[in-house]
Design brief:
Keywords: Cell inner membrane, Cell membrane, Membrane, Stress response, Transmembrane, Transmembrane helix
Strand order of the largest sheet: 4-3-2-1-5
Membrane topology: Multi-pass membrane protein
Helix content: 40-55%
GO molecular function: mechanosensitive monoatomic ion channel activity
Distance between the termini: 105 Å
Strand content: 5-15%
Number of domains: 3
Protein name: Mechanosensing system component YbdG
Main location: membrane
Number of strands: 10
Structural class: alpha+beta
Number of helices: 15
């Protein structure tokens, strides 16, 4: 600061002024002139340079410059003009007798400049986030937490610089002193540090993207990811409630991501019909002829045992889903018999819809099973169902018998 004061004195001497001759009236005039000059420079930048930059960016084919030189960025840069002007010109308005006041005003200008620089950095990071949100490769990456961490680091550096200005100490000396309290700082910023590390892992391993449908039972999350920030991951559940999850929990715990289902273009149908085992039998000649006429089986050769009605039903069900227009025929289709249980023989239908959307999927699933349940009696089979009160009716002796 002494060097600056000496250079200012030499400059004033060259134009015919002596700093020692400055009275209070001259100082007031000079200060008002400096304030007026900073105002005029800001006005020129706001009304001439900013519109010119807008016109230039509007003519370019690239879109990134529209974000980097948007109104927020230009206004943030405009806020830096007054403190820069004050810091450069204020030494001209003070003599050696007013160095203490000049020292305070220069400190205030520097602090103001640091604050406006932090605001510019935040606007710059917001613009970067908007650019990455539009980019095909980056838009699905959880980058918001990384930008927030960079902004937090910038705020920390700015805070240290402000402290160093206020106490007239070098910033490195303050950083050395903070090293002793690193454990306390890590405790204070534990969630932010863990969130940053988790965000990098989620992004690097492509584990999570905004828009993914995830399920995490531990936190009651079952819905779409709407935001991935430094400290929270917001999930909008299907009942429109919002669940917040710490990012590091997604790395340390297990969660289910349904993105693969959407990318494959289909949603799995995996449901069973339980067949009453007592209705499974070899087909009678009449049933064989009926099935052959309907095209469900080919006529058996002489000497071969007749087909089993359950096998005919499985072949029919597979042919039905294979020809259904809303079933995705590029993915697996299967009708299989599972381990018999006390509830009957499970016959599982396994296929995929041609859309991952929920409502069309449920409509298709209902349509398939409505049809198969209605067709089961055609094969001499019955669905296993536990008896209800209406299945028992009293006879003349008031003895309850089944209604079948």
């Amino acid at each position: 600061m002494n060097t600056m004061n000496q250079e200012t004195a030499q400059l004033l001497q060259q134009i015919g002024f002596e700093k020692s001759d400055l009275n209070w009236a001259t100082q007031v005039v000079l200060i008002l002139g400096i304030l007026l000059m900073s105002y005029l420079i800001t006005l020129i930048f706001h009304h001439l340079i900013m519109p010119a930059v807008r016109k230039i960016t509007a003519r370019t084919k690239a879109t990134w410059d529209d974000y980097l030189f948007n109104d927020r960025m230009m206004k943030a840069f405009c806020r830096m003009i007054p403190p820069i002007t004050w810091y450069i010109l204020l030494p001209f308005a003070f003599d050696e007798k007013s160095l203490y006041l000049l020292h305070i005003l220069l400190k205030a200008s520097l602090i103001y400049l640091i604050i406006t620089a932090l605001m510019l950095i935040k606007c710059f990071l917001d613009s970067l986030y908007e650019i990455s949100s539009e980019h095909e490769t980056l838009k699905n990456r959880p980058l918001k937490g990384i930008y927030q961490m960079i902004n937090l680091i910038a705020i920390g550096v700015g805070f240290i610089l402000i402290i160093s200005i206020l106490i007239d100490r070098n910033a490195t000396a303050i950083l050395t002193g903070l090293g002793a309290s690193a454990a306390i700082l890590m405790l204070i910023f534990k969630d932010s540090i863990l969130g940053l590390v988790a965000g990098v892992q989620l992004s690097a391993n492509d584990m999570l993207r905004p828009g993914d449908w995830i399920t995490m039972t531990k936190y009651g999350a079952d819905g779409y990811v709407i935001e991935v920030s430094l400290t929270t991951v917001k999930v909008q559940n299907f009942d429109k409630t919002i669940t917040t999850i710490p990012p590091y929990a997604l790395v340390s715990d297990s969660f289910q991501n349904w993105r693969g289902m959407r990318e494959c273009g289909g949603r799995r149908i995996k449901r069973s019909l339980f067949i009453d085992m007592t209705t499974v039998h070899f087909c009678t000649p009449e049933e064989v002829n009926q099935f052959v006429q309907k095209g469900w089986i080919t006529a058996p050769t002489e000497g071969n045992e007749p087909p089993v009605n359950l096998h005919v039903f499985r072949e029919y069900a597979l042919k039905y889903i294979s020809n259904h227009p809303e079933v995705n025929h590029n993915l697996m289709q299967m009708v299989r018999q599972l381990q018999p249980t006390t509830e009957g023989i499970p016959v599982e239908i396994y296929c995929f819809s041609n859309t991952p959307d929920w409502i069309p999927y449920e409509t298709l699933q209902g349509e398939i099973f409505d049809h198969l349940i209605a067709m089961i009696p055609e094969f001499g089979l019955h669905i296993f169902q536990r008896p209800a009160g209406t299945d028992f009716q009293p006879n003349e002796k008031n003895e309850f018998i089944t209604s079948k």
